[in-house]
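1st attempt posting a full record on here, be nice pls
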Amino acid sequence: MATEDNPIVYGNGSKGIIIAIIIAIAILGGAYLLSKSAPNIYLNSDNAQQLNKISVSGTATEKVSPDLLVIAFRIQTESKDAKTSQSDNAALVSNFKTKMLSIGVPEKSIKTTSYQVVPVYKQKPCESGDVKCYTSSYYQSYLAGYQTIQTISIELTDLKLGGNVIDSGSSVGVNETFVDGISFTLQEQTRRELESALLKKAAMSSKLKAQNIADGLGVSLGKAIMGSETSTFNYAPRNYGYSGLAMMKEDSSIPTQLSSGEIEVSATVSTQYQIQ
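the predicted structure (as tokens):
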């Protein structure tokens, strides 16, 4: 029998198809809504392994003798006009450099680190009749002149020259040349080599700590998964001012003597190891 000849069969078949389509749409819509509302969760073996780890840090410290001495001098002159102040300062600096070269300081070790010309203001009692002068306790400022200040740094790899440099430099000008600071430190190449060696020692120290922890826990120590410096390179050069040295000298004719002592340098490394 032909299909169009049987309307009941044709109608039942259409309803079945429509119901199937509705069910399919409902399933797809539900899946879409679930995908929007449920959070995305990802699991992998790497994340699981990260949970099984040992975190430690190691520090290496060493005391070394300094191989560089830095002495900071301040040469300052004052005059009523800026040009005279500058020319007077230039003459003193020239004399200063000549003395440094004469005692064996290399020219490349003499460096100007700052130079400035500043006005100098002083105070005086207000003049009679000045509207601001109500009592004698009032003062007014006035421009007294100009001051030229030049700071010179002397870097010495021959530390034995330090005392002679201070005595020779301080003799330039009367109350015009000053020692602002003295620092026993390390040359750049020495510092880099020392830092590299200490970082290796600190990393080995952290690994030994991790191994001891693993042995205590009864587990096997795996490979390192992280390593970094947890603190800045701890390096403190020895510094002291010249004023203390001057007071220690009972006789100004006695040459200045400096004692370098030792410098303590340290480095810290933080690491993480897997537990197998």
